[in-house]
Amino acid sequence: MFEYAPAPESRDIVDIRPSYGLFINGEWVEPQSEARHKTVNPATEEVLAEVAWAGEADVDRAVQAAAKAFPVWSAMPGAERAKYLFRIARLIQERARELAVLETLDNGKPIRESRDVDLPLVAAHFFYYAGWADKLAYAGFGPDPRPLGVAGQVIPWNFPLLMLAWKIAPALACGNTVVLKPAETTPLTALAFADICRQADLPPGVVNIVTGAGETGAALVNHPGVDKVAFTGSTEVGRLIARSLAGTRKKLTLELGGKAANIVFEDAPLDQAVEGVVNGIFFNQGHVCCAGSRLLVQESIAADLLEALKRRLGTMRLGDPLDKNTDIGAINSAEQLAKIRELSEAGEAEGAERWSPACPIPDRGYWFPPTVFTGVAQSHRIAREEIFGPVLSVLTFRTPAEAVEKANNTPYGLSAGVWTEKGSLMLWTASRLRAGVVWSNTFNRFDPTSPFGGYKESGYGREGGRHGLEGYLAL
Ligand code: NAI
Ligand code: MG
């Protein structure tokens, strides 16, 4: 056995202010609301900074700033808007290390992931949509597609800066202006992005960032000056928003939960499939809307696959997210940890068998070991509800038809995975899965050119690719 020496990334590279105001009209402003909130490092429970919780008057001020900036920004030739977006993309690349450390501190995800996945994708999204800004007339939406106006955008805590990029890059490329509300537990990279907008000399009011919790989000999406709402988060809140926007002129896109099936057929290369299953559910502690949280494995290979999976999980390293060797970081919040615990206990109570590798848990912070449930029935809560944590539910099947039926037996439909060596079986299966994204012999692969979005209770509208422009244009 080799021992790992600690390989911590330095946190000195980030400069966190003790307290933050709101970013409105290109400036830091003090909120009218006196409510403030401390954001903590979930790996240590250390307070990182205090942020404002914007009230209705603050949200109104931000929407007014965005509305005032809209005529200027939307009238600018696309090639000019593109210059700003390219500049932002390059600044993100230049500051990638700093932003990755900041993301890891505020979110708890391993530095290896924020450095190698989140940040490269954030920059790639801005580069990609910068390229569309002067080509909108050729995007297939008519010769002169027009922007909508002010976009109110609400994002979750699992990929804070990446979700910001998914929302802001296409909105700006199309000529809209933006008010964005980051999640309450992970505001810091959005606030750093505000500084990047200033560095890029973005005209004031084009991007506004208001921090706060659900009430701030509700004030934003319900503001009459907002023309488009884009939301990523829970199905529960997505439903609330859809209800309150029904009958208004606002255009809405929703990216909600998931309960993806990762289907492994008996002819799949076993070791490769195990890596895919691990990446599918333990990437980002399973805080992934498209996580492969239901493993559907063909009965003939179930025992072998589970043995290999358990062996592999025994090598996973849980702990300090800033350590470059860490595979599994901290759970983002005490609330999320409580939810994962509650659902895991329900799994045991309903009769599934629970397993975790021997795994030391740090004394402070929010942690949950990688967990596998076998003997799971389709009716169990752990097979139906989004756990949003490092918990895998294993079910078996005998025939491809049974695999498809079980995979589709969910109110969600965001993603799925298919592992097989046979191209014909892969295509047969993929064409029958009711999921927005189907990966084959890989999982959790993202690219700005590829549209992403759901069926059924996973939401509607697409983000990414040419399709992602549609939500930000008046068609
Ligand atoms: P959430 O849906 O409450 O929060 C997402 C964002 O919406 C946050 O910025 C929040 O402040 C905002 N928000 C909350 N209530 C709002 C309202 N009434 N109007 C407008 N904005 C509002 O998600 P939460 O509570 O953080 O997580 C609960 C569960 O939701 C998780 O356990 C997970 O299962 C699921 N979830 C799914 C995500 C996904 O990407 N599909 C992301 C985050 C959570
Ligand atoms: Mg909530």
UniProtKB/TrEMBL annotation:
<feature type="active site">
    <location>
        <position position="255"/>
    </location>
</feature>
<dbReference type="InterPro" id="IPR016161">
    <property type="entry name" value="Ald_DH/histidinol_DH"/>
</dbReference>
<comment type="similarity">
    <text>Belongs to the aldehyde dehydrogenase family.</text>
</comment>
<protein>
    <submittedName>
        <fullName>Aldehyde dehydrogenase</fullName>
    </submittedName>
</protein>
<feature type="domain" description="Aldehyde dehydrogenase">
    <location>
        <begin position="28"/>
        <end position="473"/>
    </location>
</feature>
<dbReference type="InterPro" id="IPR029510">
    <property type="entry name" value="Ald_DH_CS_GLU"/>
</dbReference>
<dbReference type="InterPro" id="IPR016163">
    <property type="entry name" value="Ald_DH_C"/>
</dbReference>
<dbReference type="GO" id="GO:0016620">
    <property type="term" value="F:oxidoreductase activity, acting on the aldehyde or oxo group of donors, NAD or NADP as acceptor"/>
</dbReference>
<keyword id="KW-0560">Oxidoreductase</keyword>
<dbReference type="InterPro" id="IPR015590">
    <property type="entry name" value="Aldehyde_DH_dom"/>
</dbReference>
<dbReference type="Pfam" id="PF00171">
    <property type="entry name" value="Aldedh"/>
</dbReference>
<dbReference type="InterPro" id="IPR016162">
    <property type="entry name" value="Ald_DH_N"/>
</dbReference>
